Amino acid sequence: MFVDQAKINIKSGNGGNGCVSFRREKYVPNGGPDGGDGGRGGDIIFKVDDGLNTLYDFRHKKHFKARNGEPGKGKHMHGKDGQDLIIRVPLGTIIREAETGQVIMDMAYPGMEEKILRGGRGGKGNQHYATPTMQIPKYAQPGKPGKEFWILLELKTIADVGLVGFPNVGKSTLLSRVTNARPKIANYHFTTLNPNLGVVDINKGEGFVIADIPGLIEGASEGIGLGHEFLKHIERTKVNIHIVDVASTEGRDPVDDINKINHELETFNGELVKRPAVIAANKIDVMQDDVHLQALKKEFEPKGIQVFPISAVTGEGVQALLYHVHGLLKELDQETKVYEQEYFIDQQELPEESFTVQVLEDNTYLVEGSKVEKMLGYTNLETEKGFAFFQRFLRDTGIIDELERLGIEEGDTVKMYYLEFDYYR
């Protein structure tokens, strides 16, 4: 089954906690701290798999989580890093943030590999918190949590040329004749319910990729039928082939068909009608007269859009059409249309709180935070000046106010990383 959109949840791994440990060897009775650091959490990585052409694998599985880092161990042993999770997607998959729809990454190149979420950093072991005045630190840093996001995956087919037209005009038949693709072909509407890709080999390895876009209908640009699902697959094409039934086997007017298709393209994305186009006037093998063929030439060739009478069944006129399209492509920029990044996950992180206060058992209060950890790193509490600075820091940052709001009493214990002291007003 062809699936070209999916909503999934991704989460990188948590960092492992640092370890609190002390050397305990036979002839070293007073060994110092030797707690190792926690391992890094696993990353979420997206990779283009050339063997995939659908997002079907994401239809039932919605949650993808990388492994957590392992905690540190004694004897300075570092915890094992969490295993990265590689999510394989088809070429042309766009990754969007689910709530805003903004582009996180466009997987537009073969073999492309991108790290979307970084795993949490591992916590430091207690070996890092030993000081001349605190030789037995009983604190280790917890690991940082991973990041979690809901994202949208959207597949936009990557092809040089798009075959567009109303249902049952012969797009699939033409594709099967000029490429190695084998789409389902039958004489009824909407045989094709997903884009089919094929490679046209012109000569000596030169060629281009062509996509049979499922038959459009009026109102497709407004989402009628499967309009949006079909139209998005020609947003990357460089040249469009309008294929029409010049024999009018179903009573349709080919000129009117092309004008209606162009209206749908322009309404959906105005850039689509500005691209080079060519008209394949199909079914000349059953054409009774050339009235419609002449009408096509009169209407569109003065506008620079060449009309090629062809029969996708017999192959008549097809070679001239392909060589003309190949010539158009050689004049154009060969770069694939890539959707620019709009959503930057690293910039969405909330700033870390200056401090947090947690009430533990036994009248103990745990104070943590980036500012607290940084302050302890450069303050010598054994000096009078350093101790005075520490007291001012507790007042100025609001830590004292928060402790009192939580009900701290004189004599209760306050823990700040490696530092532990009794509280007195």
UniProtKB/TrEMBL annotation:
Main location: cytoplasm
Gene Ontology MF annotations: GTP binding; GTPase activity; magnesium ion binding
Domain OCT, chain residue ranges per copy: 347-425
Cofactor(s) demanded: Mg(2+)
Subunit structure, interactors included: Monomer.
Keywords of this entry: Cytoplasm, GTP-binding, Hydrolase, Magnesium, Metal-binding, Nucleotide-binding
Cellular localization per UniProt: Cytoplasm
UniProt-listed Pfam families: DUF1967, GTP1_OBG, MMR_HSR1
Family: Belongs to the TRAFAC class OBG-HflX-like GTPase superfamily. OBG GTPase family.
Coiled coil: none
Domain OBG-type G: 159-330
Protein name per its UniProtKB record: GTPase Obg
Described function: An essential GTPase which binds GTP, GDP and possibly (p)ppGpp with moderate affinity, with high nucleotide exchange rates and a fairly low GTP hydrolysis rate. Plays a role in control of the cell cycle, stress response, ribosome biogenesis and in those bacteria that undergo differentiation, in morphogenesis control.
Species assigned in the record: Vallitalea pronyensis
GO process annotations (BP): ribosome biogenesis
Domain of life, source organism: Bacteria
Entry's Gene Ontology cellular component terms: cytoplasm
Residues the entry annotates as binding Mg(2+): S172, T192
Domain (Obg): residue spans on this chain: 1-158
Gene transcribed to yield this protein: obgE
Record EC number: 3.6.5.-
Binding site for GTP: 165-172, 190-194, 212-215, 282-285, 311-313
